């Protein structure tokens, strides 16, 4: 275990190794992650009132009141996230929710025509998360070039990030920056062994998913360039 003196706020991008990483991070400091969108209000207030540093985690696409209170109460917290290749992330999220969608007779291609206000597979989700960073926003509205520019700036200036495709290296880089000794556990949780491989999908479907996630593709390429450029530093 490593003693740590500053809170860590993890911005959990769905299906991007978030559960694996925040669980490992919390175990490394001898604690448990505070999944603050999933606890009662009284418990949330109690956690905030406790000045001991913690690992906080949530999907940033809702409960903005709690996000604002946390960010206000913990202004010096380290901010961390993981990203994933966008088409792969989109397919993984569908597979994770496949039972729900199959019960409505909605296949992967059908999700591209759904109203984003009424389902969770939001286009350009990673761009929206990194642009707003817990701030209130309407996730059903399309991302913009301004969102992408803000997201890139946040990656450079405000957020420690890893990439699922470089999971183990990412974990150790983040831990080094946070001055933590990371537990040796390279497992990736919530993996769907039956999920479709991208190279098994029709090329036309992959192209359609890409068209719905152009900002995320740009953001991921930018993050990958940063990540590879920082090797050996």
Keywords:
globular, alpha/beta, 233 residues
Provide a quick synopsis of the model.
The chain is an alpha/beta fold.
Q: What does this 3D model show about the protein?
A:
This protein has eleven helices and five strands; from the N terminus they run βαβαβαβαααααβααα. It has 233 residues and is α/β, with parallel strands linked by helices. The protein has a five-stranded parallel β-sheet with strand order 2-3-1-4-5, with helices on both faces. It is globular and about 50 Å long. The mean pLDDT is 88.
The string of secondary-structure elements, in order, is EHEHEHEHHHHHEHHH
Low-confidence stretches: none
- By DSSP (H or I, 4+ residues per run), the number of helices equals 11
Mean pLDDT: 88
Helix content estimate? 40-55%
Major sheet summary line: 5 strands, parallel
Distance between the termini: 26 Å
- Gross morphology is globular
Instruction: Calculate Rg over CA atoms.
Output: 18 Å
* Assembly status: single chain
Main sheet: which strands, in order across? 2-3-1-4-5
Structural class: alpha/beta
Number of strands: 5
Percentage of β-strand residues: 5-15%
